[in-house]
Amino acid sequence: MDDRLRETLSAMMDDEADELSVRRLLSHHDQARVRDQWQRWQQVRDLMHSGHTPAEGVDVSANVRAALDGRSGMARHRASAKGASPSSRWRWPAVAMVAVALVVGFGAGAGWDSREGSATAGAPEIAAQAVPESDVAAAPVREVTLQGLDEEQWEQMSQYLLEHAQHNSVGAGRGAVGYARVVSAGNGY
Amino acid sequence: MRMNRLSSRLRASAVPALLLVLLALTVPGLAVADDDRSEVNQWLERLAPALNMTSYRGVFVYARGDQVHSMQIAHRYRDGVVEERLVMQDGGSGEIVRRGVNVVCVLPDRGRIRLDQVIPSGPFAEAFTSQLMPVSRWYSAEMVGEDRVAGYEAVEIALRSRDEYRYSHRLWLERTTGLLVKSHVRTLSGDVMEQFQFTSLEITENIPDEEFEIRTEGREISRSLATDDGGAEASPVSRMNGWELGWRPDGFAPAAAPRAGRGQVVAFSDGLAAFSVFVEPAGRLNMPKGASRIGATTIYMHALESGGREFLVTVVGEVPPATARRVAESVRVQDTLALEGNGS
């Protein structure tokens, strides 16, 4: 599946896909793969939002098709600003192409925030979050926003993350978590 | 007189009686607490061996900050050798295959590839797992209860940080094997900052050899986890060459780490959390100073001047920003020449 279709799938999850893209997705030759991807993302999103609605085995493509043909409300045709300017919303693929370390990452799903549910996608937008007061032992810690870094600075920052993740990996008492940290760090720039 | 003696005798006998009553009241409570503690400790002792010695296959999800990754894993322990294959489920089609100390990494053939940094390249497996840290000194451990994760019965353990220098953790271990099937890193107030969880899992001895074969086409890069210079890696302290740490939270001990390209990095671990300290001469790149965070991971950068030279101290770890800052600010450079020699 190419990046464009992945984008469409993700936009569908956010209810922001336009009709043409959805039709293109539905006519993709490998429907099983599209379905797998959809279900996996749905699962992840449910997990992130502590939901319990496993999408496993649910095939929504027929209903979507019917909705498109019947112009019912299910596939809302939204020419939203984001949908109309994919280049700004989907900045991540360009970044990811440059950035592949180990994975190209979670692709279009990279924007799901488990806590705030924000939909800003994009690898470099893993902005430094506000430091909760409970963390601050004494004086407030000066915060650096990762968004503000230039490419070289970001690369350097990623290198630190990667090296630290390596220290943690394989046997840091966390097994797969260590790997996941390596991958996550590698994906970030 | 007699009355006095009587009352004092009464007092004398009442005190032990009272103590006995108190003891009788408190002992069951203490016994329960002790039982709970020993049960938690038994589970924690199983954690590290279970990670290596359980054979399983499944898919897990890892999330921190805005990033979410999903990976498929097959892990087999046979004749003392660990075999593992990880396949990325989203985005590119990278995979990692490990057999014992040999790791092969296959990446999609596009983009800028930074393999040297990606492949784990140090003897940390042994270093960390052989360190049986008394985590209960730094975390108050408690059995939370039972849960089900990816279809398996699991016990849930809360490890609440005893001080503000580290985060709290929550671990879910599969009941029969002790395999870590889910984990959270949380703030003291309970916000989840990082999570890992199997979404599908099968614990089975029966994983055929084919599942450990590389299937992705692309550039293959091999690496051995064994060190080239053996014993020289053993002491991480010796690599704090030319600098020292003035402060670190209790319980964080230097842990063996792979020799990185940069040379001057040491990792510290309390058995659950870890942070790495990088000390190097400030290069031409001007890095912003302060703290950044991705999920539970903090990066703190601090400029240091010593002997008329500028140094950059970077602390990266799953610790609160205030801890990272205090660690970074406590670094003292003793020998600028040693640092400059290694740091390039």
What does this structure look like?
The complex is a heterodimer of chains A (189) and B (344). Chain A is mostly helical and 189 residues long. Chain A contains nine helices and no strands. In chain B, a hairpin with a 6-residue loop joins strand 7 and strand 8. The termini of chain B are far apart. Chains A and B meet through helix 3, helix 7, helix 8 and helix 9 of A and helix 1, strand 1, strand 2, helix 3 and strand 10 of B.
Descriptors for this entry?
heterodimer, A: 189 residues, mainly alpha, B: 344 residues, alpha+beta, eleven-stranded antiparallel β-sheet, six-stranded antiparallel β-sheet, disordered N terminus
What's the N-to-C terminus distance of chain B? 89 Å
Largest inter-chain contact set: A-B, 78 and 96 residues
Strand content of chain A: under 5%
The tally of helices of chain B reads 5
How far apart the termini of chain A lie comes to 23 Å
Topology:
The complex is a heterodimer of chains A (189) and B (344).
Chain A: H1 3-13, H2 19-26, H3 31-48, H4 61-70, H5 81-84, H6 86-89, H7 91-99, H8 151-168, H9 176-187
Chain B: H1 2-53, E1 56-64, E2 67-78, E3 81-88, E4 95-99, E5 102-107, H2 115-118, H3 124-129, E6 139-149, E7 152-161, E8 168-174, E9 180-186, E10 192-203, E11 219-224, E12 243-245, E13 253-255, E14 265-269, E15 274-281, E16 290-294, E17 297-306, E18 309-317, H4 321-329, E19 331-333, H5 336-343
Antiparallel strand pairs in B: 1-2, 1-10, 2-3, 3-4, 4-5, 5-11, 6-7, 7-8, 8-9, 9-10, 12-19, 13-14, 14-15, 15-18, 16-17, 17-18
